[in-house]
Amino acid sequence: VDVRRDPVEAKRRTGYCPDVGGLIPRATPWEHLQLSARLRGIRGWEPAARDLLERFDLAQAAHRVCAGFSHGMGRRLSVVLAAFGSPAVLLLDEPFDGVDPLGVEATLELITGLRARGTAVLISTHLLPLAVEACDEVVVLRAGAVAAAAPAADLSGAAGAETYRRLLA
Fold first, then answer.
1. pTM summary value
2. Strand partners, 140
3. What is d(CA 37, CA 17) in angstroms, rounded to the nearest whole number?
4. For a Cys staple, 15 with which of 24, 55, 68, 87, CB 3.0–4.6 Å?
5. Are 75 and 97 within 8 A, CB to CB?
């Protein structure tokens, strides 16, 4: 899809989890999903929405306004909204920030499942072990430009930490 010619279709095919914000404080998770389904033209969305809320331990809070959510709950909901509708491209900015171990596990499982179906996933994170687990390649950016890149598998363990430090130099 050419973003310049058809920006609406490009947005429809892209899921985005921002680092900060993105949630409507007076809306519930269910209302967020309903709005997302309408904007993306997703029909019969309710079963998929329920499944995502269950997988991310948000089902009990589905009808509570987000204003009272912890930081971790808000992050989990942002990931759910980004992945809703199985987008062709998934952009996750700090999806693990403030998320409990079960939320991290749910996010990693979601990423693995979407990648297996052909979704292109880009994750921005400062947590190297999670980047290594979730990604094929790690790219280091400086001032918005690629400074270095390496296969994620090369960055695991003590030797990987040393390789990572060299990439940052």
1. 0.89
2. 148
3. 16
4. 87
5. yes
Residues linked to residue 84 through DSSP beta bridges, in sequence order: none
Cα 33 to chain centroid, rounded: 15
Q: What is the pLDDT of residues 43-86, one digit of tens each?
A: 999 999 999 999 999 999 999 999 989 999 999 999 999 999 98
pLDDT at res. 33 = 97
Which residue has tokens 């389904």? 37
DSSP assignment of 49-110: HHHHHHHTT-GGGTTS-GGG--HHHHHHHHHHHHHTT--SEEEEESTTTT--HHHHHHHHHH
Q: Return the axis-axis angle of helices 29-40 and 71-83, rounded to nearest 10°.
A: 20
User: From CA 33, how far away is CA 46, in angstroms rounded?
Assistant: 9
**Long-range contacts at 51-58 (CB < 8 A, ≥ 24 apart):** 52/80, 52/83, 52/84, 53/29, 53/80, 55/106, 55/109, 55/110, 56/80, 56/103, 56/106, 56/107, 57/102, 57/103, 57/106, 58/29
Interatomic CA distance for residues 132 and 110, integer angstroms: 15
